[in-house]
Amino acid sequence: MTAWFRNEPFSKVSRPGQWGALFFVSTLLVILLVWVHLPAALMLGPMIAGILLETGGGSLRVPAMLYWASQAVIGCLVARSISSEIASTFAAHWPLFLGTMFSVIGASCALGWVVSRFGILPDAIAVWGLLPGAASVMMLMADDRGADGRLVAFMQYLRVVLVALAAAVIARLFYHTGQHGNAVNWLSPIHWGVFSETLAFICLSIFLGRKSGIPAGVLLVPLALGTLLHIAGILTFELPPWFLALSYALLGWNTGLRFTRKILVHAARSLPQIILSVLLLMAFCGGIAFVLVKTAGIDPLTAYLATTPGGLDSAAIIAASTKVNMSFVMAMQTSRLLMVLMIGPALARMVARAVIQKDAY
Q1: Total domain count, the chain
Q2: Which of 274, 283, 325, 326 could form an SS bridge with 302, CB 3.0 to 4.6 Å?
Q3: What CA–CA distance (Å, rounded) separates 326 from 319?
Q4: What is the pLDDT of residue 219?
Q5: Which of 91, 81, 89 is CA-nearest to residue 222?
Q6: Angle at 14 between CA 10 and CA 17, to 5 degrees
Q7: Which region, left, alpha or beta, applies to residue 40 given φ > 0 means left and ψ of -120 to 50 means alpha?
Q8: Could you give the C-alpha distances from 148 to 124, 155, 222, in angstroms and in order?
């Protein structure tokens, strides 16, 4: 791996050649992961391929419009998968939801304080890097407060990758999911009228999501609006398997290609501590999932996906490829994301100030 990183085999390859290599390696990895029945293989394969290309000297980026479109597609996928049950789910379990959300957010801040307080990472970077959800907001806030945004970005996206891999492996080992993947009919007939309406809705959602100014708006707007229209029977989503596969690949590439050499070189000295802090947060969330299983009777995989500190889109993709309570998972993940957007930056600033003030004494 060191030789790969040092020699940069893709540094002299043209951009079309890099795209070809990215597609080829992604395809091989997807085939391998599908063969071992790993859920979310269509996202994880491209994600790993993106990391390999970027660390090997590649210079590709997923175009912004395609990335927004893939997020909107995932929003539509989730909207199609849930019903009015999500509101009743939240109403029936609201103390559980609030307790879980505040526990995860509080644990993130506390762990960030400990890591920063003992000098494992400088400038309260761990506070910003461990707060789950809204990665772009955390990076911007960290830069604004003088912390190194590159290291925050590394922590945020490393957490997303580790959580996605862990969730997929857990689903495979304990639930034997993904075996239906070989039965996907990639050439299933398309209802072109409904598909055209879906594409129009995706375009509208991207526009509204961008104009709203809400972080992750291109994911949340189609999720919320699409759910309302779907429940009301106004809109039906047509999402062919090949269309979803392309969206999964774009999301995987976008995450993998963010692991630039510059970020990795900068983070290399702190890599063991960063991985340890992320694993501790994942273990804490796993503990909360265990409590949900024992006290609320929720099945283990649903509880894990609902509490996992990864990205909303990756949780949705894994949940969609496994037999879990999608309404509960998405209600918990969406609620926590909204909570992080509302109070996360203020909490991160407060903890960061506490670290700085403590160091001053």
Answers
A1: 1
A2: 325
A3: 6
A4: 80
A5: 81
A6: 80
A7: left
A8: 9, 11, 33
Residue 293 covered by a domain? yes
Q: pLDDT confidence of 254, banded at 50, 70, 90? A: confident
Mean local confidence (pLDDT), 45-50:
89
Q: Which helix (H) or strand (E) holds 230?
A: helix 217-231
Rounded to whole angstroms, the Cα distance separating 176 from 164 reads 17
Residue with more model confidence, 243 or 314:
243
Angstrom distance (rounded) from CA 315 to CA 303: 12
> pLDDT at residue 101 above 60?
yes
Determine the structural domain holding residue 157 and report its residue range: 65-360
Q: List the structure tokens of 11.
A: 């540094």
Q: Write the pLDDT tens digit of every residue in 300-310.
A: 888 888 888 87
Q: What is the dihedral of CA 38, 131, 63, 5, to 10 degrees?
A: -70
Which residue type, as a one-letter code, is found at position 49?
Answer: A
What's the rounded Cα separation, in Å, for the pair 295 and 291? 6
| Cα–Cα dist 131/340, whole Å | 8
Is position 84 within any domain?
A: yes
216 vs 209: CA distance, rounded Å: 8
Characterise 239 by phi-psi region: left (phi > 0), alpha (psi -120 to 50), beta (else): beta
d(CA 234, CA 230): 6
Q: How many residues does the chain have?
A: 361
Residue 47 belongs to a domain: no
| pLDDT, tens digit, 9 for 90 and up, residues 130-170 | 877 656 556 656 655 666 666 776 787 788 778 877 877 77
Cβ contact 61:208 at 8 Å: no
Of residues 163, 129, 104, the one with CA closest to residue 314? 163
Residues 327, 84 contacting (CB under 8 angstroms)? no
| Amino acid identity at 182 | N
Residue 21 lies in a domain: no
**pTM (predicted TM-score):** 0.70
